[in-house]
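Inverse folding, one chain.
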């Protein structure tokens, strides 16, 4: 354990280089690991004078000593100070055989914590250093020819020799064969990175990305689908429940052409990574990772270098992973940089590997692509140093999109992250001189893509069913938006409930994404406290741990961290007491708490697991998750009204509830009743809802002076209660639009009581359009087909800072606005207008039933309403509630 002063200095250095944190990346280039030139020239003499005929040398190397060792023929091994953690006796042998001269460093398989440098004299055609393992020769990608010697960086001792430069072999072909008469060729990359297991949500981001790729291939057969790494962590409950298996399967189902291994791919250990790399479709690149494949074990099928023939162009790929992060959520750039897991050795000499790629392959391919997970700053540095690398398709930065064409003409591209965006790079190459003629990029917002890939969509649905059926199922209800401090306090209560400790002390800054009011589920818990297994193959750095401390130390800990939240059990605390803290502090008590002694610690659970258990407990007791208010489902409903339109004489008479419905007349001449009809579906020639005849309303394309007017007659609520507005409410309607209305935007909801501005909710005017309204980076959700009855619901949580609405079609949640987009404009003052707009964006249609509730209905209630039926009725009988309670009580613990 370093001193507190050392820790603080180290933290400052690291955080400056990785300001975005979270195991993701940084906009700035990190400090480069020690380059080959940094290794000193101090020469160590062998233990005994060597006989002229003896080709063996024995050296005693002291730990943390920088030395150069000589082989008998003048070859050298340079060992940096941080390579060895303890004193070692190294034997350097030379063995001559028919296959050539072998340079053996013993004991074999000794890891160098920082890469060493091997320099061998060259003669003839054998110019590349290779490693012999189990009888197989593997050329080192870090090997570079420097005049009369070959130089390579080594990550371990072993058997090395010179081989001829490897020939670039084409692994697969994409698109039609080369047209020999062509003078130029287009090439297209659909590139994503840092997807971080954001699959399985109602947004269907992965299937949208795949559909975009499919369309790109149809438009341009010379299209490559590439992935800049980090497919794991921060996203899916399915990954957590399957211990990585689900993310492996989903990544393979996307059928990328080429993808690189990112730092988060090591999260679940070597076996999961090996499975991830064994892809029948994609070329998986890991140029700075090495695994000892042993007989009888599944091999690590990632490639150091791969070539794909794309029409007339031979495209070479290599790519590297960024360093690991520790339990303090800091990237480790200081030597010695550790391996992620013991089974896979890492070479952190990025520059030497890039130099080796250029030296060995640049004249064997038409285009050299670095599929990188180093971050945009490092990508730019490497391409400036090696202009022979044409393109860096990047990842890891988490800083938004970036497209830079350097002065040398080579390109650095960084896409958006969390599956929110993709980058579409279109290139034109001259085939006469193999030069780049043009380059354009489009950064595409995935939320704006309408098409989905049915195969990927179904595959992910099956994965979610198998591993995380409740990932998006309502577990509890939140009464209000929570700050980070409030959510940390809730997590502390959950920790005590789940684990029965005496106290919890938590840092609010560990909260990533607080949820807002309304239904909450397991995914909300995971997004609030993402699981990032740092160091790799250990619990997440936010996980709960138990320690034992004295009452005096507990008081000192609170004083040392005054902004942290504390929760204690009822009654007097024992001495010593059991305390729950998160992993970073648990492993580093002296660092966080003024040099208090380091106690033993025990892993308990990930935070989301405790929140899940606590939420079920609260729901079982008919309480909101974050307040002691009784759930609406456990009390009589006095704010919900339904209209079935079965009474032609009194069509607006409510079946139940306090709200009123009638015509909106914006002027004395308005006469909406003249073209509105109330008859049976069969008389109107409309398909019967659920095959049963029903009374329905046929409404016209109302003018701006006409429509329906709904008067809530319920108490105001929520964030705008203080200004007498209804902030939280729900509207559900059984609606049928004829095919003729498909290409027109159709207003259905207007909060302006005089219809003086644009309506506030629309059906989208495109084929199979969705429901919603365009706001920043989100628009319409779901598929509301014409010539079909749909039960469409919108649940509003209006709020100036956290406001959103959710859209449901036929009982299924199909999308949600991002918090902060739905403010006072959508709150109801005196009345709500329906089916009208100030600019004539209306069409003829039919209503079977209507529901208005002066509260936000829950996901479970919307699911219970289901699809269009003869009647629309919200009811939660006692037996349904009791069954739900039993369901929550029977859920397994983690």
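Residues assigned per position:
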């Amino acid at each position: 354990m370093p001193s507190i002063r050392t820790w603080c200095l180290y933290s400052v250095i690291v955080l400056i280089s990785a300001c975005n944190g979270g195991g993701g990346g940084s906009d700035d280039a990190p400090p480069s690991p020690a380059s080959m030139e940094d290794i000193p020239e101090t020469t160590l003499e062998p233990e005994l004078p060597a006989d002229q005929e003896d080709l063996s040398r024995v050296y005693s190397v002291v730990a943390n000593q920088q030395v150069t060792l000589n082989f008998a023929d003048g070859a050298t091994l340079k060992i940096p100070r941080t390579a060895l953690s303890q004193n070692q006796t190294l034997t350097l042998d030379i063995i001559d055989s028919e296959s050539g001269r072998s340079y053996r460093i013993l004991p074999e398989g000794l890891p160098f914590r920082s890469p060493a440098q091997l320099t061998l004299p060259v003669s003839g055609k054998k110019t590349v250093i290779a490693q012999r393992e189990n009888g197989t020769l593997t050329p080192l990608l870090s090997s570079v020819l420097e005049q009369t010697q070959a130089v390579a960086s080594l990550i371990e001792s072993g058997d090395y020799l010179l081989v001829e430069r490897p020939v670039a072999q084409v692994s697969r072909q994409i698109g039609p064969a080369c047209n020999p008469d062509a003078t130029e060729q287009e090439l297209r990359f659909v590139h994503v990175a840092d997807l971080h297991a954001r699959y399985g949500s109602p947004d269907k981001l992965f299937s949208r990305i795949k559909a975009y790729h499919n369309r790109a291939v149809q438009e341009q057969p010379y299209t490559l689908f590439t992935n800049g790494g980090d497919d794991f962590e921060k996203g899916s409950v399915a990954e957590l429940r399957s211990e990585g298996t689900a993310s492996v399967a989903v990544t393979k189902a996307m059928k990328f052409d080429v993808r690189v291994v990112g730092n988060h791919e090591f999260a679940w250990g070597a076996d999961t990574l090996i499975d991830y790399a064994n892809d029948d479709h994609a070329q998986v690149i890991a140029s700075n990772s090495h695994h000892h494949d042993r007989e009888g074990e599944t091999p690590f099928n990632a490639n150091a270098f791969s070539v794909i023939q794309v029409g007339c162009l031979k495209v070479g790929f290599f790519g590297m992973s960024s360093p690991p992060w520790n339990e303090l959520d800091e990237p480790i750039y200081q030597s010695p940089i550790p391996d992620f897991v013991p089974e896979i050795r890492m070479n952190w000499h990025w520059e030497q590997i890039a130099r080796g790629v250029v030296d060995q392959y640049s004249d064997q391919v038409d285009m050299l692509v670095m599929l990188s997970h180093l971050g945009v700053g490092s990508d730019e540095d490497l391409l400036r140093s090696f202009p022979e690398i044409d393109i860096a398709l990047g990842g890891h930065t988490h800083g938004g999109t970036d497209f830079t064409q350097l002065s040398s003409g080579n390109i650095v591209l960084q896409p958006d992250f969390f599956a929110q965006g993709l980058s579409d790079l279109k290139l034109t190459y001259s085939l006469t001189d193999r030069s780049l003629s043009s380059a354009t990029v489009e950064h595409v917002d995935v939320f704006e893509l309408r098409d989905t890939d049915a195969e990927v969509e179904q595959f992910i649905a099956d994965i979610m069913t198998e591993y995380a059926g409740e990932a998006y199922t309502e577990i509890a209800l939140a009464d209000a938006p929570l700050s980070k401090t409030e959510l940390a306090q809730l997590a502390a209560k959950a920790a005590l409930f789940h684990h029965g400790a005496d106290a919890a002390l938590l840092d609010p800054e560990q909260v990533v994404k607080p949820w807002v009011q309304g239904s909450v589920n397991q995914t909300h818990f995971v997004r609030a406290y993402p699981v990032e297994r740092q160091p790799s193959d250990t619990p997440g750095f936010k996980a709960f741990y138990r320690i034992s401390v004295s009452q005096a130390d507990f008081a000192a800990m609170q004083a040392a961290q005054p902004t942290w939240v504390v929760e204690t059990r009822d009654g007097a605390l024992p001495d010593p007491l059991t305390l729950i803290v998160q992993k970073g502090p648990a492993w580093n008590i002296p660092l966080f708490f003024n040099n208090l002694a380091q106690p033993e610690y025990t892993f308990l659970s990930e935070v989301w697991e405790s929140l899940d258990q606590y939420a079920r407990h609260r729901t079982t007791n008919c309480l909101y998750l974050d307040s002691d208010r009784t759930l609406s489902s456990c009390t009589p409903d006095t704010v919900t009204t339904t209209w079935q339109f079965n009474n032609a004489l009194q069509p607006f008479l409510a079946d139940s509830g306090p709200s009123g419905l009638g015509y909106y007349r914006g002027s004395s001449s308005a006469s909406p009743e003249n073209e509105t009809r109330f008859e049976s579906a069969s008389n109107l020639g409309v398909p019967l809802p659920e095959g049963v005849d029903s009374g329905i309303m046929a409404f016209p394309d109302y003018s701006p002076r006409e429509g329906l007017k709904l008067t809530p007659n319920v108490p105001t609520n929520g964030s705008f209660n203080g200004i007498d507005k209804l902030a939280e409410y729900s509207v559900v309607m059984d609606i049928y639009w004829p095919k003729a209305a498909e290409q027109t935007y159709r207003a259905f909801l207007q909060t302006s009581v005089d219809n003086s501005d644009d309506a506030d909710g629309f059906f989208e005017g495109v084929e199979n359009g969705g429901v919603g309204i365009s706001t920043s980076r989100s628009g319409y959700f779901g598929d509301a087909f014409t010539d079909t009855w749909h039960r469409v619901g919108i649940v509003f949580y209006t709020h100036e800072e956290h406001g959103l609405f959710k859209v449901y079609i036929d009982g299924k949640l199909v999308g949600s606005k991002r918090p902060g987009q739905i403010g006072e404009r959508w709150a109801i003052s005196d009345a709500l207008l329906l089916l009208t707009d100030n600019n004539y964006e209306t069409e003829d249609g039919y209503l079977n039933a209507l529901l208005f509730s002066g509260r936000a209905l829950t996901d479970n209630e919307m699911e219970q309403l289901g699809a269009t039926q003869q009647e629309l009725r919200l009811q939660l009988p006692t037996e349904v509630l009791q069954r739900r309670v039993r369901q929550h009580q029977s859920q397994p613990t983690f």
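Residues 661 and 710 are 5 Å apart (CA to CA). The chain has four domains: 36-164, 170-466, 476-620, 638-873.
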